[in-house]
Specification:
- With 118 residues, the chain is an all-beta fold.
- 0% of the residues lie in helices and 48% in strands.
- It contains no helices and eleven strands.
- The strands form two sheets. Strands 2, 4, 5, 6, 9, 10 and 11 form a seven-stranded mixed beta sheet that branches.
- Strand 7 and strand 8 form a beta hairpin.
- The radius of gyration is 13 Å and the shape is globular.
Length: 118
Amino acid sequence: QVQLVESGGGLVQPGGSLRLSCVASGSIYSIYIMGWYRQAPGKQRELVAVITTDGSANYVDSVKGRFTISRDGTKNTVYLQMNSLKPEDTAHYYCNGGGTKWMPGTYWGQGTQITVSS
């Protein structure tokens, strides 16, 4: 069983940057896809970005060119670098593992809040 713990959330002004980290309690080498999801108040949870073990990444259109997902197997960590943040990026962000490029897997973190506001 892999446990995921996110960190790096907070309050940031529009145009600012944040980096989220997701540390796994176990090895993520065997988890083909790791990803980040988010859920804003009153909205459904949506996929933000996913990455495979070989580094291939996919992003939701709204974050392309602004967010970058990466993973470090030696540290059992997945990152989400978020630049040029917008108020509409405000949401609770969750780390996920074991899913597909379109659907989440069974491993979830508790999430971290991102608020983009001036």
